[in-house]
């Protein structure tokens, strides 16, 4: 198993408690890919992920970071991250969405 | 069906073509020694999993034949099982509802050749997650249910009809009520598709609320879970509960987290059915010991041993 959670993650609902400003990265989900599939972050730099679906309901699960969110068409799901450790953290769609579902994945890469 | 003449012959017949390993709790072993009875008390069943009828691709160029080979292999067993259970992913997923139903009808037609008198089915995510189990129920019936067989209580848990891999509170309530009549020592077997524990969430090898099911099950001392989904033999314990994953009948997948991605093990033309097989589970009069035997489709001589961590 991978290393335990070492990033600070807060959902957008807690945004009033977070320091500003922050970088915003928009992520789209569609059958059967995320764009971008590789999300590069910088150690210590707060970032807000804004996820939306282009077709149907998907999931955005990053088990190593304890992130597990639904991504709906026409809605924005916000996930705030403050990386405090370098590494590669895979994510995948955890809402079974069709014949290519098992390849719908990507990774968050935190660099120094 | 061949009727065994005695317990020794029964066990010998089960052991043909492979090494059988069995273990049990200390109390269970003493019960066996004390209670071991006549052949009418012994029985076994067969677990087949992840047949993925309709799949085509490089991981198994012979996919159109594999299910039929499995049916022939089970029919060729020296004894026929009391029943056969299919632990999900009977068909390979398709976005086309008509194709899905066609695949299910074709699957039923092929397994109709099985000699065993009873078959039990449950869905995998490939069968049920796109339509919440609708086509599966039309073809195979309920997605969760229970039954009793010769002193063992069997319960089928559906952790795939919800596309987010959850069992759901309503089904968990059903499970709790279903098991309530049984005392803490009762032998209980659970069939499900996904692992109930977090085997590898990064590879989607988990059940979202599986820990709730385990919390319920841990009130009984003799619980064994048989599942599929991960396309390989795997044995694990959560407390007193043993969990056993079965090989698939389409293509093997790599060991959990052994490589970056869960891509299928490449097909080997020199061993085209390597990693494909089914499982025989036998028990004796005590009902407190399960013996697992892994059968490979490569041939009867290549059956492998299985440590029965799930013996109870």
Care to describe what's here?
The complex is a heterodimer of chains A (112) and B (312). Chain A is mainly β. Chain A has a single domain, classed as Cupredoxins -  blue copper proteins (Immunoglobulin-like, Sandwich), CATH 2.60.40. In chain A, 0% of the residues lie in helices and 50% in strands. Chain A contains no helices and ten strands. Chain A has strands spanning 8-11, 23-30, 33-35, 38-42, 47-53, 58-62, 67-71, 77-82, 87-92, 105-111. In chain A, the strands form three sheets. Chain A has a five-stranded mixed sheet, with no helix packed on it. Chain A is globular. The relative contact order of chain A is 0.30. Chain B has 312 residues and is an alpha/beta fold. Chain B is built from eight helices and twelve strands. Chain B has one domain (43-284): Purple Acid Phosphatase, chain A, domain 2, CATH 3.60.21.10. In chain B, strand 6 (152-156), helix 7 (169-179) and strand 7 form a beta-alpha-beta unit. Chain B has helices spanning 7-15, 26-35, 63-75, 97-111, 125-128, 134-140, 169-179, 210-217, and strands at residues 21-22, 43-48, 83-87, 119-122, 145-149, 152-156, 187-191, 222-227, 234-238, 241-245, 277-283, 290-296. In chain B, 25% of the residues lie in helices and 20% in strands. The longest helix of chain B has 15 residues, at 97-111. Chain B is globular, with a radius of gyration of 18 Å. Classes of the chains: A mainly beta (112), B alpha/beta (312).
Gist of the model:
Chain A is mainly beta and 112 residues long. Chain A has strands at residues 8-11, 23-30, 33-35, 38-42, 47-53, 58-62, 67-71, 77-82, 87-92, 105-111.
Report the CATH superfamily of chain B.
Answer: Metallo-dependent phosphatases
Q: Biggest β-sheet of chain A, characterized?
A: 5 strands, mixed
- The helix content of chain A is under 10%
Tally of DSSP helical segments of chain B: 8
